[in-house]
Amino acid sequence: MEKEEFMERKKNKLKEMIARGEVALGTCICGFSPAIIELAGFCGLDFCRIDNEHTWRQDYTTEDLLRGAFCADIVPLLRIDKGNPYLVRKALEAGAGGVIVPHINTRREVEEIVQAAKFPPLGKRGYSSLCFSGHWGAGSGAEWMDWNNKETMVISMIEDVAAISNLDEIMSTEGLDGVFFGPADFSISAGVPLQTGHGKVMDALRRTIDSAKKHGKFVIFGAKYPYWEDAQRLRDMGVQAIEIGHDVTILGTIWKKTVQEMRRDTKK
Whole-angstrom Cα distance, residue 186 to residue 188? Predict the structure, then answer.
């Protein structure tokens, strides 16, 4: 095998699908097992959101999950905490195909993420190829910097009422690839806590989709159970990246439903 072939870098499959106008399917990973991410990839899912906002994972387990995604050819999007630009760089160095940052309400906040994610001249990211993404220095240099700037993704979350009036400014930010609409936090912000199907939430989602289309961005949104039916509804609404549940909610749904049905039959 030629060295150039061995060192060839993968294109971001999710980014390419979105550019072609296709609908990508993914899931959210809350657990700590690389095997679950590998399974998601082997089942044909295109991307996975690894949650590092509501789980404690600032250790080697994140790297294990990202390597699992690499092995199974599924694009890992790492959701990190807001307000820490160093986590953006660390996520991409560890091998994330993109970062998701919660509670973004202004263009300025998006620009800060882009600055942290991109090398000059697009941003202010510091250089070191001694990481998984840089092949531990074996595949580094200007080519790697250019690949990062082109292939890794910046995704902000729309989950506050305050963001809706700024949608066009947010979506038009250079370097932003797409947004993730968070219905739970948005419903709380809108005064209808956890009523994720409420008209206020659905109207905001539609406005987000419209603005994204206008500015050439895409929207990630999660399907509800039964996932295959709701995913079709979201596709028809214009959602281009659909999450098929979470690893723990999928398992919990099947367990609870089976227990309920079995115990109901027993009482007859």
Answer: 5
The model's confidence at residue 1, banded by pLDDT at 50, 70 and 90, is very low
The tens digit of pLDDT for each residue in 250-267 reads 999 999 999 999 998 776
Q: What tokens were used for 2?
A: 């030629």
CA 152 to each of CA 25, 60, 166, 204, 265: distance values in angstroms, whole numbers, following the listed order: 18, 21, 24, 27, 51
* pLDDT for the residue 56: 80
Q: pTM score > 0.90 for this model?
A: yes
The CA-to-CA distance between both ends of the chain, in Å, stands at: 66
All residues at 6 or more sequence positions from 213 whose CB lies less than 8 Å from its CB, including other chains: 238
Cβ-proximal residues to 177 (8 Å cutoff; 6+ apart), any chain: 15, 18, 98, 153, 154, 155, 217, 218
Which CATH homologous superfamily contains domain 10-267?
A: Phosphoenolpyruvate-binding domains (3.20.20.60)
Whether residue 3 has pLDDT greater than 70 = no
Q: Exposure string (b/e) for 39-76, b if CB count within 10 Å is 16 or more?
A: bbbeeebbbbbbbbbeeebeeebbbebbbbbbebebbb
Residue 78 · residue 69 · CB < 8 Å? no
Residue 11 burial (C-beta neighbours within 10 Å; 0-12, 13-18, 19+)? exposed
